[in-house]
Specification:
This protein has one domain: Protocatechuate 4,5-dioxygenase, Chain B, CATH 3.40.830.10. Helices cover about 35% and strands about 25% of the residues. It is built from nine helices and 14 strands. Strands 1, 2, 3, 4, 5, 6, 7, 8, 9, 10, 13 and 14 form a twelve-stranded mixed beta sheet that branches. A two-stranded antiparallel sheet has the order 11-12. Strand 5 and strand 6 form a beta hairpin. Helix 1 crosses helix 2. It starts with a strand and ends with a strand. This is UPF0103-domain-containing protein. InterPro entries: MEMO1_fam.
């Protein structure tokens, strides 16, 4: 049995079972707007350190597991699968669905992650303790399918969406899409700003009429509206125009493509929470945005 170690425990989140359990309980108890349990087939949630994004992520977890996360450390022109049998968390281990993983591998459209790549990536790992916590009462019945999504183009996003669409139809399956939203600041090489004077990239000498954090909020909410519209092409056009640094844009696009591949179903995507790690005031500041959403799927 091969186990992926919880490589980010103790740095990105607590490695203490007791402390982590208490933290997750607090985040989940603080959720005010909850996704309806019935017909929820997917959620979008952030993957940054819990100190910043934990409360926001809790807004996405309310029910019943494919885990789609972006690749931060390795270039991947496709999607990668894990060879592991178990994923470790401080709360306990999660079992991988080897049958489904091998079924995906048989399509010849997926590559395999090495153990190093698997453990180096945090976008999927950050959702594992939440997944364990939510399904704790029936954890022996839960199996996960982690998929690392690379920097793929629109054509491949649609291809993977079509491959995964049939799994969305299974009421026992939940898709978790891992994504933070705008990474703003010079350390991210992204200083997009928009006010009455139009859109531009800020420099130290730039003048602003709107607080930077408000410009970021408007930018993110425009993208969230494109996602909520379930319009794959509109979201792609938005990304081309703004270059918004939504790190999970490719997993989100795969989800949108999967939903579009199910014309017999009516999909509804609702954002439940939005936050920023800090309120940027000047070009010297930086922030990361977080948003949570759920997707409901019913017959037309």
């Amino acid at each position: 049995m091969t186990t992926r170690q919880a490589s980010h425990a103790g740095s990105w989140y607590s490695s203490s079972k007791t402390e982590l359990n208490q933290q997750l309980n607090r985040f989940l108890n603080d959720v005010t707007e909850k996704a309806p349990g019935k017909n929820v087939c997917a959620i979008i949630g952030p993957h940054a350190g819990y100190t910043y994004s934990g409360p926001t992520a809790a807004h996405a977890y309310n029910e019943r597991v494919f885990l789609l996360g972006p690749s931060h450390h390795v270039y991947l022109d496709g999607c990668g699968l894990s060879r592991c049998d178990r994923y470790e968390t401080p709360l306990g281990n999660l079992t991988l669905d080897r049958t489904t993983i091998e079924e995906l591998a048989a399509t010849k459209e997926f590559s395999w992650m090495s153990q190093h790549v698997d453990e180096d990536e945090h976008s999927i790992e950050m959702h594992l303790p939440y997944t364990y916590k939510i399904f704790e009462s029936k954890i022996d019945q839960i199996k996960i399918v982690p998929i690392l999504v690379g920097a793929i183009d629109a054509e491949k996003e649609k291809k993977y969406g079509q491959l995964l669409a049939k799994y969305l139809l299974d009421p026992k399956t939940l898709f978790i899409v891992s994504s933070d939203f705008c990474h703003w600041g010079r350390r991210f090489r992204y200083t997009y700003y928009q006010d009455q004077q139009g859109a531009r990239n800020l420099s130290p000498s730039s003048s602003t009429t709107l607080p930077i954090h408000e410009s970021i909020r408007q930018l993110d909410h425009e993208g969230m509206a494109m996602i909520a519209s379930l319009d794959f092409d509109a979201f792609e056009d938005y990304l081309v125009r703004t270059r918004n640094t939504i790190c999970g844009r490719h997993p989100i696009a795969v989800l949108l493509a999967a939903l579009q591949a199910l014309p017999e179903k009516k999909s509804t995507l609702v954002f439940t929470n939005y936050a920023q790690s800090s309120a940027c005031q000047t070009i010297q500041d930086s922030s990361v945005s977080y948003a949570s959403a759920y997707v409901s799927l019913v017959n037309q």
